[in-house]
Each structure stands twice: as structure tokens, then as C-alpha cells.
User: Fold HTH gntR-type domain-containing protein from Bradyrhizobium jicamae.
Amino acid sequence: MINLKVKSLERSPSLPEEIVASLTGALHKGELRPGDRLPSETALANEFGVARTVVREAISQLKYDGVVQSRVGVGAFIAQPQERTAFRISPACFQKRRELLKLLRLRNGVVIEVAADAAVARSNRDIVRMEAILKQMREAISDRERGAERHFEAERQLIHTIAKVADNEHALNFIMLIDGQIAEKLRSVAVKNTKATELATVAIEEQARLVEAIKRGDPAAARDKAREHYDNAAQRLADRADLADV
Amino acid sequence: MINLKVKSLERSPSLPEEIVASLTGALHKGELRPGDRLPSETALANEFGVARTVVREAISQLKYDGVVQSRVGVGAFIAQPQERTAFRISPACFQKRRELLKLLRLRNGVVIEVAADAAVARSNRDIVRMEAILKQMREAISDRERGAERHFEAERQLIHTIAKVADNEHALNFIMLIDGQIAEKLRSVAVKNTKATELATVAIEEQARLVEAIKRGDPAAARDKAREHYDNAAQRLADRADLADV
DNA sequence: ACTATCAGGTTGTCAGACAGGTTGCCGACA
DNA sequence: TGTCGGCAACCTGTCTGACAACCTGATAGT
Assistant:
């Protein structure tokens, strides 16, 4: 009777997490608006039936994002939207096809910019590294077992390399955030794509053209090729049947 | 003796904030690496000379970002970079010219994408709204007193409108995050620009061309015009003398 | 009418406690 | 010697109560 944690993946949310979700939900539904004062910590503790320490942990998370600000002796208030200090995405967005496409549009905008920068800043060693990654992609095609996984990983490596070549750490962080969440979601659903290999071949050639443009040191071409590949890749991803239609 | 809170702006950081800063600093310097186990909460409390609740609030913030993960009975661990769930920027980045330019490149990549989307999704009412914002910009020029401020606000409005037209809430959030932080920094330094009005005139015409492209429903042109304006604006901002050179 | 004072509420921090969970050691047993 | 069971130590998550610093609004006194 080996249950090997099918259940443990859907980990039970902690108490502070639930309170954060409740508060952000109220904020999103408009029940809580910028400038409003939150109930006092003791009041919230009573309302949720938890200790004040739990409420404090929840509020401290919201403060960390600049969603609420608190003043000693007065209370905690919902901050103005422009006061936010972090960008974060609800995991639910990665399930809905429309939302996923919008997120990918964001990501691709960033990727395209750094691709152009990379075309300016690239060194010979960078080119060697990128071409090695392309080679890994090509090899992954013939791996019937873990080919998709290896290809996915190589794509990730290529973007990371491009961002590093462009010397833009923030872009790398941003791209990794979105890619990480997408990968998380893809892992949790069945990863089956009948036309995988032929799509992969197309994708690799697109990326090869991108690397070529970077190698030539042509920012405009790099932009074009990056747009071509990553917009296509976004569409291919969104076309997958395992995403909910909304 | 009216001191009107010159000091209170540089608010003293709270204890949990300091611990977060210390831990993220250690992470950034490589003293703490993904997979490492953090000292236990009591150990950290002793080390920092604070109560465990303070340490817990700090760690709860890091958990919220997916920077650390904790397991009952075991401890707290530094998560893998791809496990992050939030994008956040150190305020220091907005002071250094190089970093600021990189952040603006990010932002502009996103803006350019949504501008193209807006050119597809725009309605007549959207156009009216955008042209009204352009008009406000032109009027702001003759306001010698608060002209710069009004112009800045109108620019912000235009971007927000474009993002809303493109129906991309995430892009709006992302742009607002970066703009908000930049505005925060600009407010704290002297805002003086001798050539302000002539630069503003140029900027307004750039944006007018962008709105025109959106009005025509031409995504490619919208992209070009958006790139032209926002790249120029980034350069103009970075040219300001009140930024540290690094 | 104006001002000084004060009581009550609120956040920030501290100290201690306990439940539930995990790890690793250590001894019993085969 | 090798294996297994149990136990002690430790860790996180939560709860409780307390106190200092602070702000607000009412109250009382002038």
C-alpha cells in the first residue's frame, strides 16, 4: 500500500496563507479598497478564530508586497496600487488559456528586448555556449523517453544564456518567474503531445535563426527572430489540449 | 520649530525587515545557497537578539516569495531559483543609472507588446480617451508651476490606458510596479530639468504618433512608435544628472 | 473657546508553552 | 553482524498573555 504522496502535492495551506488569500480576495473583489483600514489584529484574530501571531504573519506578508501599510497606534491600511513593491501572479492564471497567453505576451516582450541587447553584447564564447545548447536540443529529439523534458530544459537554458549575455539580471529573474510557474503547471498535468517531435524540429530551427542573428550582431534581426520563435512557442503552448478554456 | 518630518521619511526599518534584508543579503552574496538549511528559528532569534515571533515574520515573508520553504519538524530551506513566486526589485537599483536603464528596458519590452495589442483591440471610445490624455499633456506645458508633475501623471495615464485597452491586467501591474518605484525615487531627488519644456514637446509628439498608430489599428506601427518613444524617454530619464553613475 | 490631560485602542515586541512532525541514535533482538 | 523498534531531541506551527510606544478622541479644567 504505497501511496507515494499523491495527496501531499496539494499541501494544506497554512493559517497565515488562508488569511492572506482571504484578504487579497476581498481586495480583488473590491470589498477592500486603497485607503481602507483593516480591522485590528485582535479583531481579525477573533474573526478567523486564530491567534494574533497568525494574523501578524499574514499582514506582514502583505506589507512585504506593499499591499498594506501599518502605523503604530493607528492601524493597517490598504496601500495605493502604485505603492506595490512586488509583481506576483496567481497560480490560477496559468491554467486558463487566455490568461496564460497574456502572461506569455509579457514574458516575450522582455525576451525580445534582451535578445536585441544580447546581439550587441555577445562574445565569441557566448555564441559557442548558445550553439551547444542548440545541439542539445537536436539530440533531445531522438530521445523517445525524456526528449520532451530535455528539450524543455534546453529551451530554458537558451533564454537564460541570452539574458545573461545581455547582462540583465532583472530580466532573467522575471523570465524565470514566469517560466518556473508554467513548468510547475505543466508538470502537474499530463505532458503528452502527439506531434511533439515535428513541432520540436520547427522550434529548434526558429531558435537557430535567433542565435544566428545574435551571432551576426544584428539587434533588429534578433528582435524579429525572437518574436517569431517565442510568439509561435506561446501559441503552440496555448494550443495544448490540457488547458482550460476561458 | 516646525520640523515637518524630514526625518520620518527615512523610516527606521522594523526588526523583521532587517532580518529579511540580512538573509536576502546573505543569499545574494552566495553565503546562502539553494538547498541550504536555515538555522532554526530559535537559533536565528538568539543570533539577532530578537524574539522568535520576529524571526517567524521575516521567514514568512521569504516564504511568501518562494525564496524559502519550510517543513514541519525539519527546518526551513532556501528554495531553487525557479521556485520563486514573485518579482521584486531592490530600491537601490533605481538610483544607479545602469540598473535603471536595464529596468526600463524590461518595462519597455512589455509596453511595446501591449501597445501592439491595443492597436488590435482599440475601440472608438479608447481613442477618445487617449487623445484627451494627449491634450492634457499639451496643456501641461504652459503650466510653469506644476507642469512637470502634470505631464508625468498624464504619461502614466496614457500607459495605463493602453494596457487596459489591450486588456492585460498583468502588464498593467508590472508597469505600475516599475513606474511607481521610479516615481518614488524621482520624488526624493531634486526634480529640475532646464530643458524640460522642449523635451516635453518632443515626447508629446512621439506619443501622438503612437496613439495615431493605435487609432489606425496598425500593430506593427504601434510597436515601432512605442519603441521610439519609450526608448527615447528612458534615455532622457537616464541622462538626468541626479542619478548616480555606476 | 481653548488647552492640557487622560483613557482606550493599536501595532511592535517579548517570553513561554504545547502539539504534531521528523530525524537520528541506540539498544534489543534475531 | 545486521536489522528493526522505540525513544529522545529538535523543529515548525500555533496559542496565550504581557508590556512598551504610539495615536486618537473625549473629557475636564481654565
Observations:
- Residues 1-10 of chain B have pLDDT under 50 and may be disordered.
- The interface with chain A takes residues 16, 20, 53, 56-57, 60-61, 64-65, 81-89, 93, 99, 102-103, 105-106, 108-114, 117, 167-171, 173-174, 176-177, 179-181, 183 of chain B (CB under 8 Å).
